[in-house]
Design a protein that fits this description.
Helix content is 43%, strand content 25%. The chain has an 8-stranded mixed β-barrel, surrounded by 4 helices. A 5-stranded antiparallel sheet has the order 2-1-5-4-3, sandwiched between helices. A 5-stranded mixed sheet has the order 7-8-6-11-12, with helices on both faces. α12 runs parallel beside α14 (415-426). By secondary structure, it is α/β, with parallel strands linked by helices. The chain has 3 domains: 3-117, Beta-Lactamase (2-Layer Sandwich); 145-304, 2-Layer Sandwich (Alpha-Beta Plaits); 372-562, Alpha-Beta Barrel (TIM Barrel). The chain binds ligand C2E and magnesium ion (MG) (2 copies). Ligand C2E binds next to β14, α11, α12 and β18.
Length: 567
């Protein structure tokens, strides 16, 4: 089968949104894809088998064709601008990239051309030679300003109805005028096209991007969940945009890096209407421009600060493990009959070089979003296992150590294997390792969770359900999982004194769990009054500041050594 009839090639061609043409070394057109056919106005059958010299290329361009062939033959590659003719007779401009490929076994040489159309219509935005529907920018095919505003209006009314947020980000390329002047408008256009593609890749499907000025783009993030998520969400996209712009762009053999100023505004926080949003984004953009290259600003300076702090945190978290800044503290769990420490929950702490101790409530969510939770979680698990081994080695009576698992770790295929390896490495009795998981982590994919939890439980490791009562799952639902312990969330304890129905709920949970042969730990005990109530409710294990906060390993070691009673 000739290479160009290969079904894989066919699939590749048909799925490319760029116009692609495949030529043999004589210039005969062997394949074109639909995008190419659409843009040229010819049906594929009208092109395939013909010679490109007689089609598409215009007068002088035919000699250009020889030049292209020459340079592809020698260097394997050509890139430049061409003028070609449509079936209808009109001409159009395009950026063409041609490279040569050898078909299997080093046999035939073919040429693959990728054509990007620039249709410079006399009246901008007027449909640009029919390539793009009206309202679209003729160079990039992105919505122009009016269409973008339309979309923004729609997104806003939908978001406000549903109580959600919308973000608008304006992006203005640094030094674009200079680039245009020094390298020529064709180079400038290539850059804009490339940027528009890169921006597209930074967005989710519900988002959109428009070109609202010569070198200005606008991003619309529709459908952001919660108000307090909005700054973070917009910040994450801003970061992604910067990362993708930072990739070098090669232009006529030169490597360019692009930077941009960005202005971000949020609705409902900064305003409700599309008009106000567009104005705010412009104000924020001006502000960012004044700050220098590659800068972004939120409309509200407070939000800029929040986003910046978060990025700074993310950056330093990336190296926290290597720099040994993470610590594992242990919060004792107390047996209410004897007052003895029968277990401890391992809780991560981060000693930040400038900020001091950062609580996990602040850095664990960042770690989860960035995927850093995987190495961090592994470090926590390993450190806790090593601690168990150390206590055993110095002859202390064993206690159970609880380790928190995040949903992200839980989705990893190799979690059970990792746990098994650690148990083997430290020669642990697996019953003393207890893994804490929240309801929401398992409810994301129940089937998978059941399988994973069963595998872990088969190792002899025990499992606890953390923050019980904050989710929506019932005990009955949770019965399908092999949990040994329920940890009742501290919000219950807080209200137990004032609210008798909360006390009744806790009492029912304890009774039911015990009847199912499950253990119950109540978290967050702070006062003697709470202790008295929980005693009555037949709770027998607790954890809270009343007994002890989480302490460094050496301190817990000391408590265990002295067999300290915490009641
Ligand atoms: P959690 O697993 O529910 O941990 C219990 C949290 O309650 C701890 O906060 C603990 O210090 C706090 N606490 C204990 N007793 C009391 C009390 O009497 N009153 C009050 N107000 N709080 C009490 P911490 O250490 O700040 O941890 C917060 C959360 O961060 C943890 O909640 C857990 O979800 C997460 N986390 C901590 N370490 C790790 C870790 O290594 N991996 C993962 N995935 N998550 C972790
Ligand atoms: Mg926990
Ligand atoms: Mg908890």
């Amino acid at each position: 089968m000739p290479a160009f009839d290969h079904p894989l090639l066919k699939t590749l061609l048909e799925n490319s949104t760029e116009a692609v043409i495949l030529l043999d070394r004589l210039g005969n057109i062997r394949r074109v894809n639909q995008a190419f056919a659409n843009a040229s106005g010819y049906a594929p059958q009208e092109l395939e088998g013909r010679n490109i010299r007689r089609f598409l290329l215009e007068g002088e361009e035919r000699s250009l064709f020889e030049e292209i062939y020459e340079s592809v033959w020698q260097g394997g590659y050509w890139q430049g601008e061409i003028v070609a003719r449509r079936k209808t007779g009109e001409t159009f401009r395009g950026a063409l990239k041609v490279s040569s490929v050898l078909s299997g076994g080093g046999g035939e040489r073919y040429y693959v051309g990728q054509l990007i159309f620039w249709s410079r219509a006399p009246s901008p935005g007027a449909g640009a030679g029919g390539l793009y529907p009206s309202g679209m920018d003729s160079l990039t095919g992105l919505p122009g300003r009016p269409l973008f505003v339309d979309r923004l209006q729609q997104a806003l009314s939908q978001a406000h109805r549903q109580g959600r947020c919308v973000a608008v980000m304006f992006l203005d390329l640094d030094r674009f005028q200079f680039l245009n002047d020094s390298l020529g408008w064709a180079a400038g256009d290539t850059v804009l096209l490339e940027i528009s593609r890169r921006l597209g890749r930074c967005l989710r499907t519900s988002d959109s991007v428009g070109r609202i000025g010569a070198d200005e783009f606008a991003l619309l993030l529709a459908d952001i969940d919660e108000e307090r998520e909005a700054v973070r969400n917009a910040g994450v996209v801003a970061r992604k945009v910067y990362e993708s712009l930072a990739l070098p762009l090669s232009l006529a053999g030169e490597e360019l890096t692009i930077s941009a100023a960005m202005g971000i505004t949020l609705s409902p926080q900064d305003g409700m209407s599309a008009e106000v949003m567009m104005k705010n984004a412009e104000v924020a953009l001006q502000h960012a421009r004044r700050k220098g290259w590659n800068n972004y600003q939120f409309f509200s300076s407070e939000m800029t600060e929040t986003a910046r702090r978060r990025f700074a945190l993310e950056t330093s978290l990336r190296s926290a493990i290597e720099r040994g800044e993470l610590l594992l503290y242990y919060q004792p769990q107390v047996d209410l009959k004897s007052g003895r420490v029968i277990g401890a929950e391992a809780l991560a702490r981060w000693r930040h070089p400038e900020r001091g101790m950062v609580p996990p409530g602040e850095f664990i969510p960042v770690a989860e979003e960035t995927g850093l939770i995987v190495p961090i979680g592994e470090w926590v698990l390993r450190t806790a296992c090593r601690q168990l081994a150390e206590w055993r080695d110095i002859g202390l009576a064993p206690i159970r150590v609880g380790v928190n698992l995040s949903a992200k770790q839980f989705q990893r295929q190799d979690l059970a294997q990792m746990v098994a390896d650690l148990i083997a490495e430290f020669g642990l009795d697996p019953h003393y390792l207890d893994l804490e998981i929240t309801e929401s982590a398992i409810m994301e994919d129940v089937e998978r969770a059941v399988a994973m939890l069963n595998r872990i439980s088969a190792l002899g490791v025990t499992l606890s359900i953390d923050d019980f009562g904050t989710g929506y799952s019932s005990l009955a639902q949770l019965r399908q999982f092999p949990f040994k312990t329920l940890k009742i969330d501290r919000t219950f304890v807080r209200s137990i004194q004032e609210n008798t129905s909360d006390a009744a709920i806790v009492s029912a949970i304890i009774a039911m769990a015990h009847s199912l042969n499950q253990n119950v730990i109540v978290e967050g005990l702070e006062t003697q009054e709470q202790l008295a109530i929980l005693r009555e409710l037949k709770c027998n294990e607790m954890q809270g500041f009343l007994f002890s906060a989480a302490v460094p390993a050496v301190e817990l070691t000391e408590m265990l050594r002295m067999d300290k009673r915490l009641l």
